[in-house]
Amino acid sequence: MGVVPTLASATPSPGFGGSVSTDVTAVSSQPASAGTVSPAIPAPAVPVPAPIAPVGPANSTFSSGGGSFSSVSGGAPSLPAPPPANANYGAGSSSSYAMADKVLVIKHERVLRLLRRGQVIAQYPIKLGLNPYGPKQRAGDFRTPEGKYDLVARNPQSDFYLSIKISYPNREDAAVAGENGYEPGGLIMIHGQPNVPKRPPEHYATRDWTDGCIALSNADMVDVWMRTTVGIAIEIRP
Questions:
Q1: Is 38 inside a domain boundary?
Q2: Cα Rg of the chain (Å, integer)
Q3: Tell me, what's the pLDDT at 229?
Q4: In the predicted model, is pLDDT for residue 30 greater than 60?
């Protein structure tokens, strides 16, 4: 029987950067029925490329609630809503993050206290209006109000680093201003530092500087923001 001669050379067929062997074993031309089985020709070894990981920038933005937490100079953060004031923290929970059910401001002490069930759970130094003594009587007097109010709105994108609106004027404030022929004013807030400061940091840290609002450091404002909810009472004492 004749023998198929060995192929001396075969043209490689590239595949995914691999190579193909050029040696092919001689194959007998004798039919299989004669007792000789033709050996199988091995398939070319084709390496499979490793999967390519998707390329793209990592998401490094700290997303919380409705937006991302940006720097002070770039705007106030959009923070998640805190748990309700009646949330059950368990008997062993620390007061280090207990939710407040009332805010108390003592103007002459320059302090804001968070209360829960009548107990102080946190307190922070504050700055007041440029004219800090006495109750607010009219728009533009630069005084911080005195009385009993509620926290009625929260603004994460204010001109200051977060702001919580106080329900000034109440009925008594409006009545007193009306009797004297004045507008009572409004937009009294608890807020942090200005997002675009017009003065050096020492100015805001060492004196009363607001138009009548209650100002905190940005770090303290975040804490107050996270531990209060709309609807709780705030009392501002002389």
A1: yes
A2: 38
A3: 97
A4: no
- Specify the pairing of strand 233-237 against strand 102-106: parallel
Q: Give the pLDDT confidence score for residue 104 in this predicted structure.
A: 98
Query: How many residues are given for the chain?
Result: 238
Residue 203 tokens read as: 């100015």
Q: Specify whether the backbone of 89 is left (phi greater than 0), alpha (psi in -120 to 50) or beta.
A: alpha
Give yes or no for a contact between 130 and 208, defined as CB atoms under 8 angstroms apart.
Answer: yes
CA of 26: how far to CAs of 82, 217, 230, in Å?
80, 88, 89
Indicate if 135 and 233 belong to the same structural domain: yes
Burial class (CB in 10 A: 0-12, 13-18, 19+), 46: middle
Verify that 8 and 109 share a domain, yes or no: no
What CA–CA distance (Å, rounded) separates 238 from 147? 9
User: Cβ of 117: how many Cβ atoms within 10 Å?
Assistant: 9
Burial of residue 34 (number of CB atoms within 10 Å: 0-12, 13-18, 19+): exposed
Helix (H) or strand (E) holding 215: strand 214-215
What does pTM read for this prediction? 0.62
SS3 5: coil
AA letter at 25: T
* pLDDT (tens digit per residue) in 131-183: 999 999 999 999 999 999 999 999 999 999 999 999 999 999 999 999 989 99
Note whether residue 8 is domain-resident: yes
